[in-house]
């Protein structure tokens, strides 16, 4: 079931999302939390840091799994998702870094590594709450629109549209990696609860498509969420109305 929540602006969306995460951590301090990168969740992370610093939200027993990482850039590179997560969240809360997992874009044996990542999620009890953004092309994590979608964590090629969208973080478009490692649609669908966030006018067309979708299609990877039993989509007015 998809529940739709529309907030006035990005700030409110971020607070509502952070509050849902807070509630889950308070219910279960050992929460297994699936995290996303990109611009969309930045405000939510900022609010989670505030909740930690000012209201004592405790991350000490929380485990996190990130959705994806670029292949071919070092963990220390400012554009890696390893770097992003430390910078935007982990360095500012009391999480045990041993309990944070991000796919390794440098793995020597990527195929084996991908299987291990899904196995590790299972060993930790599965993801309780997964945070997702959505690409303008309908991707979730780096599962790009295609004839087929991967079930498990996989190495994937990025589409031109994603490379272009993400080039804003790099000095030039040529520097954007063309390959990534991403949790598959199946890895995501196994999460007990999912929150998808989208803000801004640029996301309005894809959100419109998703909200009117009555069929699932690999051409709109986010449509797979129609099969999930507990999805909350939190939007701002711009993403909802355009
Ligand atoms: P964004 O990316 O949050 O930077 O818009 C979302 C996504 O591509 O999934």
Structural notes for this entry:
There is one protein chain. This protein has 242 residues and is α/β, with parallel strands linked by helices. The protein has a single domain, classed as Rossmann fold. It has helices at residues 10-27, 42-55, 81-88, 110-123, 160-166, 185-189, 204-212, 237-241; strands spanning 2-7, 32-35, 63-66, 68-70, 100-101, 129-132, 154-157, 179-182, 193-198, 231-236. The strands form two sheets. A seven-stranded parallel beta sheet has the order 1-10-9-6-2-3-5. Helix 1 crosses helix 2 (42-55). The longest helix has 18 residues, at 10-27. The radius of gyration is 17 Å and the shape is globular. The site of 2-phosphoglycolic acid has 6 residues, from loops.
- The Cα radius of gyration reads 17 Å
Shape: globular
Order of adjacent strands in the largest pleated sheet = 1-10-9-6-2-3-5
| Broad CATH class | Alpha Beta
- Helicity level, as a percent range? 25-40%
Low-confidence stretches: none
CATH architecture type: 3-Layer(aba) Sandwich
Features:
242 residues; globular; alpha/beta; single chain; Rossmann fold; 18% strand; binds 2-phosphoglycolic acid; 8 helices
Topology (elements, then pairings):
Layout: E1 2-7, H1 10-27, E2 32-35, H2 42-55, E3 63-66, E4 68-70, H3 81-88, E5 100-101, H4 110-123, E6 129-132, E7 154-157, H5 160-166, E8 179-182, H6 185-189, E9 193-198, H7 204-212, E10 231-236, H8 237-241
Parallel strand pairs: 1-10, 2-3, 2-6, 3-5, 6-9, 9-10
Antiparallel strand pairs: 4-8, 7-8
Helix pairs in contact: 1-2
The structure holds 2-phosphoglycolic acid.
């Amino acid at each position: 079931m998809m529940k739709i929540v529309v907030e006035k602006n990005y700030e409110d969306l971020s607070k509502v999302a952070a509050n849902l995460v807070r509630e889950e951590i308070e219910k279960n301090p050992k929460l297994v939390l699936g995290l996303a990168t990109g611009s969309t969740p930045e405000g939510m992370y900022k609010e989670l840091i505030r909740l930690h610093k000012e209201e004592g939200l405790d991350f000490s027993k929380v485990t996190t799994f990130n959705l994806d990482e670029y292949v071919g850039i070092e963990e220390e590179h400012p554009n890696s998702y390893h770097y992003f997560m430390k910078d935007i969240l982990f360095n500012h809360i009391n999480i045990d870094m041993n309990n944070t997992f991000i796919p390794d874009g440098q793995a020597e044996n990527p195929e084996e590594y991908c299987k291990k990542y899904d196995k590790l999620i299972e060993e930790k009890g599965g993801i309780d709450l997964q945070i997702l953004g959505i690409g303008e092309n309908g991707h979730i994590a780096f599962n790009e629109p295609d004839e087929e979608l991967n079930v498990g964590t996989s190495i994937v090629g990025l589409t031109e549209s994603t490379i272009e969208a993400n080039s804003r973080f790099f000095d030039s478009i040529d520097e954007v990696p063309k390959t990534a490692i991403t949790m598959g649609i199946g890895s995501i669908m196994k999460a007990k609860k999912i929150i998808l966030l989208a803000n801004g006018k640029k996301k309005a067309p894809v959100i419109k498509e998703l909200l009117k979708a009555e069929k699932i299609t690999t051409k709109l990877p986010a449509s797979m969420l129609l099969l999930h039993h507990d999805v909350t989509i939190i939007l701002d007015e711009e993403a909802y109305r355009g």
